[in-house]
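Exam revision sheet. Question 4 asks you to relate a sequence to its structure. Input first:
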Amino acid sequence: MSPQAQLVMILWLPIVLYFFHKFPPTKAVSISFLGGLLFLPRKAGFELPLIPDYEGMVATCYGIFLGIILFDSQIFRKFRLHWIDLPIILFSISPIFSSISNELGLYDGINASLNQATRWAMPYFLGRLYFSNLLTLKELAIDIIKAGLIYVPLTLYEIRMSPQLHNIVYGYFPHSFGQTMRLGGWRPQVFMQHGLMLSMFLMSTTLIAIWLWQGKVVKKIWNLPIEVVILILGITFILSKSIGTYGYMVIGLVIMFIAKWTKNSFPLILLTFSICLYLIFATSGNFQGDNIIPFIQNIAGEERAGSLQFRFDNELILGDRARERIIFGWGGWGRSRVYQENWTGEIVDVSTTDSFWIIIFGTNGLFGLINLILLLLLPIWCFVWFCYPVKTWFYPQIASSAVLAVILTLFVVDSLVNAMFNPIFPLISGALLGLFLKRKKMSQPRYNLLKLANRQPSVRLDKMK
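Answer key, structure tokens:
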């Protein structure tokens, strides 16, 4: 970690507090969250006693919650936990069960749970607190597009000059430079963890812009016609050189246009249940990926097919290891990985964890994996079945929420093959579940009568008891 990276991490806290002083709380949360995601240095921060270290998006969430306490503390009094929050709570504490079942001790479990909670639960509850209605979800979607536009010139620079901005600004490269070459050119990374994470972000911004254009939500962003915005984001996304995210974009567009033309949400629902079906076969050891590889080779080429085969091979041996502790997993400290003795007698790690689901399955077992999948897919099911039917998805008020549900689904798909965590997705998860709770409350007869009474003074509240 360089001195300039340390300085930025120190200055970030007062910057976040300034946003809360300057803007309304919801806007301050959005700017702080996206600003931290886009510009903070990777693998930089400070160790803190008893709580997770001050680094990356954890530092941003610390700053945001401090800003809420200082400038908007009354929002905590309005918040109520609900049964629908159980997946994030159980997922956050799952390392405790993993540590205890492996005799690693309660302290180890609490420490691991705190780390998991800060990465996942803090963004989730920010979504529940501030983005749980149609208006704030619309603002969030537009802010994500603006964040994508801010990243366009930086991305184009790295496409031409190689991924050097993190090195230029912060003095070091945060990842393996050998993975930045793709398709005969440079794959940009800017200030994100990996080029795959950047490409997933650009795909999301492009898809959101297309959906908002089709839903007639906005005509201009920063005085740019929405069609121009789509063109800029789309070209930049294509140049980011990530074949997997090209496929996600195609899936997202298919879901979008089938929903628009046929008023049918079947592709989205089918995709979510296909994810569950894949995980059932994969965790039980019954998934066979041999038939998929030739198909991928014909579409994406031999290199991508070989990469997928490598993932399947590693998931096979890692899955066998995970099933030895199938309920709560092996816990931390690399215990879920596979080790063998090499020709010199040294014990070496012979496994590679590329997929996020296999990491959780190995460390936290089925308990952690099931709660993670519920955390990510339950908001989508609630939105589709209980909030807004597909015929409303292109209404200007609802389109933003619909596209955020779709990109959340695509993130879950990506987690089956990659481990590119992005805190924007647990934030969206919490926001959509908060929207479901408010929608459910509005549908209650008593709520409607009270709302009517507040509008019409002639209706007496005491007669409604």
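Marking note for examiners. The chain has a mean pLDDT of 88.
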